Amino acid sequence: MKKINNLYSVGGWFFTLLCLFTQLNLQAGGIKDIAPTAADAPVMLETGREGFGRFADYGGPEEGRLYISFGRADEVLYLGLSPEYTNDGVPFVNNTVASRYQFRIRRDNPTGTDPIVHGPFTVTNLNANVETYAEAEYGIYDTTQLIGGEQMYVFRPGEAGDYYIEFDDVSADGDRRVNIPFWDLTVVRDEQVVPGRVWSRGWAFRTPQVTGTTPPDCVWDREFNGSLYSYTEDGFVSLIDFQDSGFQGLSFNIAFNSTGPGTSGDLGEDRKSVPGVNQTGTARQHRIFLSLPDIELFPDGICGEVTASESFICGSEENAPYCLQVEVTRSGQVEILLDFNGNGILDDNSQDVNLVYDFGPDSLAACIPWNGLRGDSTPVDFSDTVDVIITYSQGVQHWSAYDVEFMKNGFCVETVRPTCDQTLSSNFLYYDDRDIPEDPGTGAPRDNREGCACDEGCRTWDNFSLNPGGTCDTFDDS
User: Fold this and answer.
1) Residue 124, CA distances (Å) to 101, 121, 284 in order
2) Residues 424-470: pLDDT tens digits?
3) Whether the Cβ atoms of residue 241 and residue 411 lie closer than 8 Å to each other
């Protein structure tokens, strides 16, 4: 069973919302950011795999690039890279299939020219500078290896800006993917580590099996306990924490955007989880960091305000005879709940109506249309009364993941910055699985558009079963 699990979280504010700030341990950008202990490792970079976005691949799609941002010309990138591992998470050991992959760094240039500025270099079992989890940390691995007089694992850009690293398999096994189990990318300025500079819009990881022999988990038995940070287009940062969540995915994609995996343009529909396809390619919008984004290069957004008319007016469209005039001071999303039963929440299979509208930076006022129908498709009457609840959100972040077999316990999402005046917490998670045909197996509801907190075991499933006979004799690609 392959499915898209789409999750959305408000990282800005409603009318009055608390953007919580938490003191966090600052790391660089590598395996130790997303594998908290050696027992959690390896979490392999899975680069170049077809069907998983060709993450960090030679000539791969822009949305799947692995970026490093430099704020000054004299900053330096130090790289720690281990030999390639097999898909099962073990080293290549004999000379005929020994690790052999290339990497290069390119300058991100919006004019279309992106010359290679470092490399390409070939990483083998003999010249890799990291072998273990303990070694994958800046200051521990050696960076003095010279290739043609150039330091292989040190990059000095000489110019501020964004650069990206690409990997390519050059072995004879015919598989384009490169699995890198232990890795580190650290930016240093004035001999001090600068965290929050490594990011991608579409990561691909692989958590190889611990034993792979015990059903029902089988080869999906290694948990992912990492944390990720999302930086939205309007400057809001959220933390998604998978510690003890029961996240088991083997190979998986992660991407964040402001609308969801759908592409219809109807935000209410586009939020829904999508069964059967890898739709994360359309969700690769927000930058995803392994550590808190550096505020110098990725500053806080500005909290906005919303005003709305007191009543609907006649609309200009035949299929939308009514509309409500709404204006915001900053880009964001506005939801209008027409609460016909007056209980303050959106009820499924009821007369309630939910309208969603996205305001861009160049369009901060609109008359939001409504077709005049209740949720049960009956027309509204002029004598009807209805409670109208307006929610204005900034920093909206949909967390889209592909091919995650288990999420047994649920996870937490937390607003990090900016902090805003007028406070209410926004650390709820919302999801809409009404289009997923299978029940989650944990008793979790399919429809959670009202939101849930992480201490409620929010957003769980354990219904994956590849082998009804109870054996682990299968290939994971099935």
Assistant:
1) 7, 10, 32
2) 446 788 899 999 999 999 999 999 988 888 878 888 999 987 766 67
3) yes
What DSSP character marks residue 52? Answer: T
SS3 readout for 345-400: CCCCCCCCEEEEEEECCCCCEEEEEECCECCCCCECCCCCCCEEEEEEECCEEEEE
Q: Supply the pLDDT for residue 21.
A: 29
Helix, strand and coil content of the chain, in percent to the nearest 5, comes to 5, 35, 60
In this structure, what token pair is assigned to residue 318? 């035949």
> What residues contact residue 229 under an 8 Å CB cut-off, 6+ apart?
196, 237, 238, 239, 240, 288, 289, 290, 291, 292, 293, 416
Query: Which residues in 105-138 are b (16+ Cβ under 10 Å) and which e?
Result: bbbeeeeeeeeeebbbbebebeebbbeebebbbb
Q: Residue 376: count other Cβ atoms within 10 Å of its Cβ.
A: 11
8 vs 24: CA distance, rounded Å = 23
CA distance from start to end of the chain = 9
Per-residue burial over 305-326, b = 16 or more CB atoms within 10 Å of its CB, e = otherwise = ebebeeebeebeeeeebbbbeb
Instruction: Determine if the peptide bond prior to 42 is cis (ω within 30°).
Output: yes
Place of tokens 């306990």: 225
